[in-house]
């Protein structure tokens, strides 16, 4: 009985020793992989046209601001007042549209991605406008609309959607000009 306990203890010590010796190799491998990914992204970035770079930045900002909370309201608990931030009920729709646009148009060009992009942007704009006009239905339903304030991230999301729409149009137009010359 004690022999098996001692042998298991020594096996555990041996495992921990080998695990700790493996950590520097693992860190080196992750560093090498991360460096290669960033260098590949940097070289990909350098091949882009100016409008395409701005378009990519707007798509990233749209994704970033779709995740952040858009609204805030004050709630009072006895003597303390607390500020609560919340996102829209349709937040998953905005995040999904932004995420798919970012990956499809940032890294992959195809004939159908243009239709996809403009359709998704129009859907996002329509939902934002409907939500602005009827917030209890599309944005939040458990607080009074007059108690809720729009946050900066709401306006930044709307600006990034419109910016991506405009620079997407210019990018596609420039790509057509370049392809027309070939």
TrEMBL record:
<feature type="transmembrane region" description="Helical">
    <location>
        <begin position="153"/>
        <end position="172"/>
    </location>
</feature>
<feature type="transmembrane region" description="Helical">
    <location>
        <begin position="92"/>
        <end position="108"/>
    </location>
</feature>
<keyword id="KW-0812">Transmembrane</keyword>
<feature type="transmembrane region" description="Helical">
    <location>
        <begin position="20"/>
        <end position="42"/>
    </location>
</feature>
<feature type="transmembrane region" description="Helical">
    <location>
        <begin position="115"/>
        <end position="133"/>
    </location>
</feature>
<feature type="transmembrane region" description="Helical">
    <location>
        <begin position="54"/>
        <end position="72"/>
    </location>
</feature>
<keyword id="KW-0472">Membrane</keyword>
<keyword id="KW-1133">Transmembrane helix</keyword>
<protein>
    <submittedName>
        <fullName>Uncharacterized protein</fullName>
    </submittedName>
</protein>
């Amino acid at each position: 009985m004690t022999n098996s306990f001692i042998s298991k203890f020594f096996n555990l010590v041996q495992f921990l020793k080998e695990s700790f010796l493996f950590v520097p190799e693992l860190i080196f491998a992750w560093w090498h992989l991360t460096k290669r990914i960033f260098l590949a992204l940097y070289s990909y970035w350098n091949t882009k046209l100016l409008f395409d770079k701005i378009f990519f930045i707007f798509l990233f900002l749209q994704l970033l601001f779709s995740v952040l909370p858009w609204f805030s309201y004050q709630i009072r608990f006895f003597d303390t007042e607390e500020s609560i931030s919340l996102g829209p009920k349709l937040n998953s729709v905005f995040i999904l549209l932004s995420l798919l646009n970012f990956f499809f148009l940032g890294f992959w060009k195809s004939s159908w991605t243009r239709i996809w992009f403009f359709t998704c942007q129009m859907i996002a704009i329509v939902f934002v406008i409907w939500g602005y006009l009827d917030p209890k239905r599309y944005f939040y339903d458990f607080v009074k609309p007059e108690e809720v304030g729009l946050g900066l991230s709401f306006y930044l999301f709307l600006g990034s959607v419109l910016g991506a729409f405009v620079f997407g149009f210019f990018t596609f137009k420039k790509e057509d000009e370049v392809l027309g010359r070939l």
